Amino acid sequence: MGNIVLCVLLFGFVLPTLSDKHSLYYIYTALSKPITLPGIYEFTALGLLDDRKLDYFNSQNQTKVPMQDWMREKMQADYWDKGTQSRRSKQQWFKVNVDILTKRMNHSKSDLHVLQWRHGCEIKEDSGRIQFLKGIDEYSYDGQEFLSFDSSNSRWIAPVQAAEPTKRKWDDVSILNQYTKGYLEKECVDWLTKFMDYGKESLRKHTPPAVYAFAKKSVTDSNKLTLTCLATGFYPKDVTMNVRKYRTSLPEDLLTSSGVRPNDDDTYQLRKSVDILESEKADYDCYVRHSSLIDPVITKWDGKCNDCSGEKIQSAIIGGMVGVLLTLAVVGVIICILKCRNKNGSKAPHRYQPPNDGSKGPVLTDSDSGKGSSGSSPSGSAGGSPSGSAGGSPSGSAGGSPSGSAGGSPSGSAEIITSNSFCT
C-alpha cells in the first residue's frame, strides 16, 4: 500500500495539464478480539472512491450505510440490504480465518491479531478516455504482507515463506485466478466509472491548493533552517510540487516529503522540506501545479524564520493544519493496529460446485469438512467465501458484472469475492 510520488523537475516552463487518476478500493479489517478504543471495531468494511468514503460497515452497527449523499440517492434500497447481508457474512468469514491464521502462526490467542483484505482498481481519465492502470487484491496479517495477486500473470505472490502453501493451493484454482483478474481489470473499472458518473458533481469538483512557504529552526543542525513548502486544501490528490532556488528546482533526493495526505474535509495536503544555512539569502519559492489551476502557483519564501525568536508558525497555516493533524493522529492509530491485508493457506483439497443462487460464479468448499455446501457461508464452513458464494459479488450473487450477471447494470455489489479459507 505504498505511495510513489512522481516528481518532475521544472525550470520555469509549463507542462501539459495533468490527467485525472481515479480509484475504487474496498478494505476489510478484522481483529482477533474486541478492544476498547473509540472508533475501532472488531470488524469493519470501508469502500473508498478516490480516497473518499463511499460506504461503511462495522460490527457494532451491523449495517452497510452510504457515506455520500449521491450514493444514498442513486443506489436502491435493495443494494444496501444485499450489501448488509454480504458484509455480515464476510464478518463471519474473517472471524473464522483470523483464528485459523493465529493457530497457523503459533501466535497466542491472548494477543491482538489483525487480518485485512484490500482490493480494487485505478484508472486514468484523459479527455474522456479511460485507461486501466492497475488492480490490487492483497492480504496481510499482523501488519505484514501475506499474499497479493499478480494480475499480469494471473498468479498469487507470497512474500513470506509461511504463505507459500497458500500460494500453491490458490494457484491450482485457475478459474478463481481468472475471475480475480477479470474483476480487477473489467468489473471494478465498470463500477468505478459508474460511481464517477453518479457522483460527478462532487467528485469532479476540482479545488485549488493554498500554498505556503515558511522556515523554522532545524532540529538536527543549529546552524540551519528547515524550509518547507506546504500545499493544502486541494482536490483531486494528484499534484506536482517543486522547491526552487533561483527558479531552479532542487533535486528530490535533497528534499523530505510527507507524501500526499488527507485533510479532514476530503481535500489533501503535501509538504516538502529542505535544510538550508540560516545565513543563506537565496531566493526560494514553492512551485505547485494542479489540475484545478490554469497557471502554476508560485509562492516565494519571505526570508524569515518563524520560530527563531520563539514565535510559532503563522496562524493561517496552523488553522489549516489542525484538522489535518487530528485526522492523521486518528488514522495513525488505526493504521498501527490495522495495517494488514493477508491471505493464507488451505489444508484440505478443494472442489468446485455450482452456486445455488442462479449465478454464474463458482463456489469453493472444503471437500472433507462435512459442513460446507454449495453457496454456504463461512459461518457454516471455513472453506466458504465471505459472502457465501464465490467468484461473484458480495451481494450473494456471482458471476461478474455489477448486477451479478454479465452485462447487467450495477444493481448488485461492486466488491470482489474471496473464495478460499486460510485453513491449514
Describe the structure.
This protein has helices spanning 69-74, 77-104, 164-171, 174-198, 200-203, 315-338; strands at residues 20-31, 43-49, 52-58, 65-66, 114-126, 129-141, 144-150, 155-157, 210-217, 224-234, 239-245, 248-249, 256-257, 261-262, 268-277, 284-290, 297-300, 350-353, 363-366. It has 424 residues and is an alpha+beta fold. The protein has 2 domains: 20-202 and 339-366, MHC class I-like antigen recognition-like (Murine Class I Major Histocompatibility Complex, H2-DB, Chain A, domain 1, 2-Layer Sandwich); 210-331, Immunoglobulins (Immunoglobulin-like), CATH 2.60.40. The strands form 4 sheets. Strands 4-3-2-1-5-6-7-8 form an 8-stranded antiparallel β-sheet. It starts with 19 loop residues before the first strand and ends in a 58-residue tail after the last strand.
What topology emerges from the helices and strands here?
Layout: E1 20-31, E2 43-49, E3 52-58, E4 65-66, H1 69-74, H2 77-104, E5 114-126, E6 129-141, E7 144-150, E8 155-157, H3 164-171, H4 174-198, H5 200-203, E9 210-217, E10 224-234, E11 239-245, E12 248-249, E13 256-257, E14 261-262, E15 268-277, E16 284-290, E17 297-300, H6 315-338, E18 350-353, E19 363-366
